[in-house]
Protein: ATP synthase subunit b
Amino acid sequence: MPQITQLPVIFWSQLFWLLLIFGALFFVIGRGMVPKILGTVEHRDRKISDDLEQAQKARDEAESTEAEYRERIEASRAEAMKLALAAKQDGAREAEERNRAVDADLATKADAAEAKIRQAVDKAMAEIDAVAAEATRQMVVKLTGKDVREDEARKAVEAVTNG
Structure:
C-alpha cells in the first residue's frame, strides 16, 4: 500500500498542522468561549441562588404575616367573646331589673286588691249583721207579735255569730 510507505514522509507535516489546528481551537474555544459559558453558568447559578433566597425570604415574610394574622384573629375572637359575654350579662341584668319592677308593680296591685277585698268583706259583714238584725227583728214581730228594738236584735245576732 502506497499510503503506508508515504507515512514517514508526511507524518511530521500532518502532526504540525494537527497541533496548529488543535492549538487554535484550544485558544478559540478554551480561552474565548469556555470562560463565557462558565460565566453564563455562574451567572445562572447566582441568579437561581438569589431567586431561592428571595423565595425563602418571601416565604418567611408570608409565614410571619400569617402568624400575625392568626394572632389578630385570635385577639379579635377573644374580644368578640368578651363583648358577647358582657352583652349577655347586661341583657340578663336588664331582664332581672324589669322582672323586679314588674314584681313590685304586681305586689302593689295585689296589696291594693287585697285591701279592696278586705274593705268589701268588712262592709259586707257589717251589712250582713245589719240585714240579719233587721231580719231577726221582723221574724220576732211575725212570730211573736212583739216589737224588738234594733239594738237588741243586733246584740242577739252578734251573740250568735261571735259564739
